[in-house]
Design a protein that fits this description.
EC number: 1.1.1.44
Active site: 183 (proton acceptor), 190 (proton donor)
Radius of gyration: 25 Å
Number of strands: 10
Strand content: 5-15%
InterPro entries: 6-PGluconate_DH-like_C_sf, 6PGD_dom2, 6PGDH_C, 6PGDH_Gnd/GntZ, 6PGDH_NADP-bd, 6PGdom_BS, NAD(P)-bd_dom_sf, Pgluconate_DH
Binding site for NADP(+): 9-14, 32-34, 74-76, 102
Pathway: Carbohydrate degradation; pentose phosphate pathway; D-ribulose 5-phosphate from D-glucose 6-phosphate (oxidative stage): step 3/3
Largest sheet: 7 strands, mixed
Bound molecules: nicotinamide 8-bromo-adenine dinucleotide phosphate
Distance between the termini: 74 Å
Length: 477
């Protein structure tokens, strides 16, 4: 027998993905650098489907039907290159290497170009949903040559998550690194979502005076409304959890230093290169980094803050409603920024990415899955050339309805000294975009003054310079 697909790299993600293929009726060749993992997988889960265990790279490749489909699920970076180097010489033109790891899209572009020379199709596929998703249905964001999707696509569609309307959460995103780029932005948005939820939690706790258990209830209520999403759902679970050792709320016994693996940081780094303002995502990355500076935080603990005043029970309830509005409006802004980044990459790399389809494949399986994504898809379906999500009439109306509360929440946060970098950055972005005039005109004046960098006028074409050190007359540059 031959296998329709092979998976190499059998740590938690690779094993679960291999089992997912097998459970869906495919014969799966499995391989791992350390063969004991391969045997352990087949021993424990062999009854779930048809596996072919291969110890050597040669046996693994020989077990695959042609064109071969070889999924690589190893640690991103050097290990991925090592695996490609090992397998590429054993493959033939038309074969496919599918990298399901969290690769940087620039690495994917490099690998795709190199393998194309050999006629090998390299498919950089972002996979989201963690281990549970890999097993039961992830959201999959494959890039690479479009023709590889013809035979690979149906298999991915079978193992992927399905949205509420039954549509598989996978599509051919675009050429070379497009899939991993979109996965990267997905993770950046995930950081922003988590930061905004964190700020909402802290406001409910420190301004409204609610307990973690009460806040869990509030999140549960929100989860049955327009904020319905996986992250809101698990937030309620985490907040309701009580530490068995101490009897305290779990959230109070966990060290408040957030870690990160790098995809959020990449989203911001690339956005800087592309010139896209992803201020909400950047604040989320910086908030995690600030939380980890324990010595600096310790040294700053005595700094003066405002005198805090508690809200009455009636005020607290009204405040919670306002926080929901602020959270929703800020969420619209962070998705606006993330989609702007994908749109900018589409222009920069000449990728034909359908933004509505991206929203559509994030509706299930992945960490940011949410009812909200249906709305984004609808916005792009209605107008594929939408300049920004904020230009969508429905979103604009929702923000219009939320903005008074959004501002009130930030007033309260400021007065009570609760940090809200995500909410604040989102509102600043919104106000800056809708502003009639920005102080950028003044910036241009300053640049012209100290560096003769020139400026453009509102009333005439051309570049101009003012003779600041002379008679201050204007010359055409
Ligand atoms: P890890 O990222 O922990 O990688 C472990 C695997 O890489 C093992 O199979 C290991 O083989 C193999 N490997 C290493 Br390390 N160096 C190698 C080399 N030089 N040659 C061959 N194989 C090598 O596994 P994971 O957590 O399952 O994640 C796999 C990929 O999926 C990563 O890129 C990750 O970023 C991505 N991802 C993970 C999640 C998640 O929730 N964990 C979600 C989405 C995406 P060995 O057994 O011989 O040491």
């Amino acid at each position: 027998t031959t296998a329709q697909i092979g998976v190499t790299g059998l740590a938690v993600m690779g094993s679960n993905l291999a089992r997912n293929f097998a459970r869906n009726g495919y014969t799966v060749a499995v391989h791992n650098r350390t063969a004991s993992r391969t045997h352990a997988l087949v021993k424990e889960f062999g009854h779930e489907g048809d596996f072919i265990a291969a110890e050597s790279a040669k046996d693994f490749v020989a077990a695959l039907e042609r064109p071969r489909r070889l999924v690589v699920m190893v640690k991103a970076g050097g290990p991925t290159d090592a695996v490609i180097e090992e397998f590429a010489p054993l493959l033939e033109p038309g074969d496919m290497i599918i990298d399901g790891g969290n690769a940087h899209f620039a690495d994917t572009r490099r690998r795709e170009a190199a393998l194309r020379e050999q006629g090998i199709h390299f498919v950089g596929a972002g996979i989201s949903g963690g281990e549970e998703g890999a097993l039961n249905g992830p959201s999959i964001m494959p890039g690479g040559p479009a023709e590889s999707y013809e035979s690979l696509g149906p298999m991915l569609e079978k193992i992927s998550a399905k949205a509420a309307d039954g549509a598989p959460c996978v599509t051919h995103v675009g050429p070379d690194g497009a899939g991993h780029f979109v996965k990267m932005v997905h993770n950046g948005i995930e950081y922003a979502d988590m930061q905004l939820i964190g700020e909402a939690y802290q406001l409910l706790r420190d301004v409204a005076g609610y307990s973690p258990a009460q806040i869990a209830e509030i999140f549960r209520t929100w989860n049955s409304g327009r904020l319905d999403s996986y992250l809101i759902e698990i937030t309620a679970e985490v907040l309701a959890h009580v530490d068995t050792a101490t009897g305290k709320p779990f959230v109070d016994v966990v060290q408040d230093q957030a870690e990160q693996k790098g995809t959020g940081r990449w989203t911001v780094q690339i956005a800087l290169d592309l010139g896209v303002p992803v201020s909400g995502i950047a604040e989320a990355v910086f908030a995690r980094s600030l939380s980890g500076h324990s010595a600096l935080r310790e040294a700053s603990r005595g700094l003066a803050g405002p005198k805090a005043t508690a809200l009455s029970a009636a005020e607290a309830g009204a405040f919670a409603d306002r926080v929901e509005q602020a959270l929703y409006a800020s969420k619209i802004v962070s998705y606006t920024q993330g989609f702007h980044e994908i749109d900018a990459a589409r222009a920069e790399y000449d990728w034909d990415i359908d933004l509505g389809r991206v929203a559509s494949i994030w509706r299930g399986g992945c960490i940011i899955r949410a009812a909200f994504l249906d709305r984004i898809r609808a916005a792009y379906d209605a107008r594929p050339d939408l300049p920004s999500l904020l230009s969508d009439e429905t979103f604009a109306q929702e923000i219009a309805a939320a903005q008074d509360d959004w501002r009130e929440v930030l007033v309260a946060a400021t007065q009570q000294g609760v940090p809200t970098p995500g909410f604040s950055a989102a509102l600043a972005y919104y106000d800056a975009l809708r502003a009639e005039r920005l102080p950028a005109a003044l910036t241009q004046g300053q640049r012209d003054y100290f560096g003769a960098h020139t400026y453009r006028r509102t009333d005439r074409e051309g570049s101009f310079h003012t003779l600041w050190g002379g008679d201050r007359s204007e010359v055409e540059a």
